[in-house]
Design a protein that fits this description.
- The complex is a heterodimer of chains A (109) and B (114).
- By secondary structure, chain A is mainly β.
- Chain A has no helices and eleven strands.
- In chain A, strands 2, 4, 5, 9, 10 and 11 form a six-stranded mixed β-sheet that branches.
- In chain A, strand 9 and strand 10 form a beta hairpin.
- Chain B is mainly β and 114 residues long.
- Helix content of chain B is 0%, strand content 51%.
- Chain B is built from no helices and eleven strands.
- In chain B, strands 2, 4, 5, 6, 9, 10 and 11 form a seven-stranded mixed β-sheet that branches. Chain B has a four-stranded antiparallel β-sheet with strand order 1-3-8-7, with no helix packed on it.
- The chains are: A mainly beta (109), B mainly beta (114).
- At the A-B interface, strand 5, strand 9 and strand 10 of A face strand 10 of B.
Chain lengths: 109, 114
C-alpha cells in the first residue's frame, strides 16, 4: 500500500461549485497535514496546514483531517477560475514528509 | 523578498553532458531540498541538506550530486546527463526538516536531455 494516495483527476467543476479534494494515507506516524497549490509552470506553494485531527478554515478553503480513517480533505467554496491548478496533499511526521501526486482541478467559467 | 531562486529556468542537454542547477534562498532557512517532478510520479526527493555542512540521499539520488555551498545555496549536479533525467527540478527550503513548517519552492528548472 502506498503511503499517500491521491486521485490525479482531472476534476472539472463549474464556477461557484464546492470542490472536494481528498487524500488517504497509511502511516499513522503522520501528524502534520498540508495542502499545496501548484499553478502551471510554477512551483508548489503552501496553501494550508493542520496538526492532528480536526478542521481549519481560511477564507474559501477548509482543510479537514480524520486520523481515525487516515483521510484528509480540502474543500473550496464558491470556486473561481483562478482556483484552477494542481493540488498536492502532503503529510509529515518523525522528520519525514511525503507528497501526494496531485489532483488537477479545472474550474469552468 | 525573492524566496527561493533557481537558475536556469530552462536547459537542453545532450546525453553525456554535465551541468549544475543552482538554488539560493534568502529566508535564513536551515534545510534545503532538491526534487524532481514527472507526470504521474509526483514529487520525488533527490537529495536534501538538513543544515549547512550536511547532505543526505533522498528517494532517487542515482546520477546526481549536491553541494551545500553555504546556508543560502544548494546546487545539484548532473555529471553525465541521461534522457531519463528529463524532468522538472524544484529546489525547496524549510525552517526545520520534515515538519509542518512547510516548504517554500522555487519556480523550477525544466531540463530536457536529448
Amino acid at each position: 500500500q502506498k503511503e499517500v494516495e491521491q486521485d490525479p483527476g482531472p476534476l472539472s467543476v463549474p464556477e461557484g461549485a464546492i470542490v472536494s479534494l481528498n487524500c488517504t494515507y497509511s502511516n499513522s506516524a503522520f501528524q502534520y497535514f498540508m495542502w499545496y497549490r501548484q499553478y502551471s509552470r510554477k512551483g508548489p506553494e503552501l496553501l494550508m496546514y493542520t496538526y492532528s485531527s480536526g478542521n481549519k478554515e481560511d477564507g474559501r478553503f477548509t482543510a479537514q483531517v480524520d486520523k481515525s480513517s487516515k483521510y484528509i480533505s480540502l474543500f473550496i467554496r464558491d470556486s473561481q477560475p483562478s482556483d484552477s491548478a494542481t493540488y498536492l496533499c502532503a503529510m509529515s511526521g518523525r522528520g519525514k514528509i511525503i507528497f501526494g501526486k496531485g489532483t488537477r482541478l479545472h474550474i469552468l467559467p | 523578498n525573492a524566496g527561493v531562486t533557481q537558475t536556469p529556468k530552462f536547459q537542453v542537454l545532450k546525453t553525456g553532458q554535465s551541468m549544475t542547477l543552482q538554488c539560493a534562498q534568502d529566508m535564513n532557512h536551515n534545510s534545503m531540498y532538491w526534487y524532481r517532478q514527472d507526470p504521474g510520479m509526483g514529487l520525488r526527493l533527490i537529495y536534501y541538506s538538513a543544515s549547512e555542512g550536511t547532505t543526505d540521499k533522498g528517494e532517487v539520488p542515482n546520477g546526481y550530486n549536491v553541494s551545500r555551498l553555504n546556508k543560502r545555496e544548494f546546487s545539484l549536479r548532473l555529471e553525465s546527463a541521461a534522457p531519463s533525467q528529463t524532468s522538472v527540478y524544484f529546489c525547496a527550503s524549510s525552517t526545520i526538516t520534515g515538519t509542518n513548517y512547510g516548504y517554500t519552492f522555487g519556480s523550477g528548472t525544466r531540463l530536457t536531455v536529448v
